[in-house]
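Hi W., the magnesium ion complex you wanted:
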Amino acid sequence: MQTKLVVLENQEQKKTVLQEATQILQEGGLVAFPTETVYGLGADGLNSEAAAKIYAAKGRPSDNPLILHIADFETVNTLAEGISEDAWKVMETFWPGPLTIILKKKEIVPYGTTGGLDTVAIRMPSHPVARELIRVSKIAIAAPSANTSGRPSPTTAQHVMQDLDGKIEMILDGGKVGIGIESTIVDMTREEPMILRPGYVTKPMLEEVIGKKVAIDPAILSKEGMEGIRPKAPGMKYKHYAPKGDLSIVTGEQMEKVIEKINELVEEKIKEGYKVGIIATDETIKQYKNGTVKSIGSRADEVSISGGLYSILREFDDEEIDFIYSEGFEQDDFGQAIMNRLLKAAGYTMIKV
Ligand code: TXA
Ligand code: MG
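Structure:
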């Protein structure tokens, strides 16, 4: 299969491209598109055969359910039932945006999309290209992240090409995405809503809207949790992306100590003949002496850090780095989502100084 990579240019060309994408989706094919979090790999979510192609292209286990992407609030009623007041409040506050909601599914949603579950994950993305594709096609688009299973989620169209070239019909190139890590998932079928995957929309933000406590799935908070308890979002149980290089996160109260430790570790590994990479920040990058040093973003802007996370890991893979040392980040609110992804990539290896 030839994968068509298209950059959306002017109004006229965009119309033609979106019509072509619609036709692919209607015929049960696959179109990757940008969202504000990561690129998604889209198919008609109400067509089991089309959804099956997503699993095949990604090499994804078939019990891992997909998120349905919609563009207007009325569609929620066609896909889900028993929707609580709180659920509506949350949707109205954070949609369109980086939040996925778990609701009880209606019969129209096939088990092929929900991985056999009676619940369905729904999200209304805010990215203009995603919104236009959903609007023009009038399809509830099932879309996981557009990476090969086990690789970091794609934050550029080129990342999607690296993983899925020749396996899907089309990629809509909308440039680099903003947030860079996947949406928050909140289960609104429970009396006490529960965050199943941390993301840009945080626990305090949700609590402020519904005026009551929101739980966090204990399985996502620690390695111990991962091993002991089964996470409620099936996708969170899979061993996530691990870079080819051995990644360790160095944390500590004092940044100077962290930098000193990383410099020390890097020097050791270089002496042993290894290629070593450092995940630094704009604030600290100049203080590293050896190795391949890259800045993930600025500590003054958390979204620059989440936005740089997956691409920096892909770059170190491309450069065949043997050992990677990363600075750690605050684990409060959005920082928790960033550290959740970084810790998974590191297999939970933390060095405290
Ligand atoms: O930001 C995002 O959410 C991106 C963009 C493309 O929208 N999508 C994404 O999809 O991250 P994916 O498939 O990579 O992750 C979906 C997660 C998985 O962990 C899956 O197990 C969980 O959502 N999930 C989906 N439906 C569920 C359900 N009914 N109950 C519990 N977890 C569910
Ligand atoms: Mg994914």
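Residues 255-271 form the longest helix (17 residues).

W.
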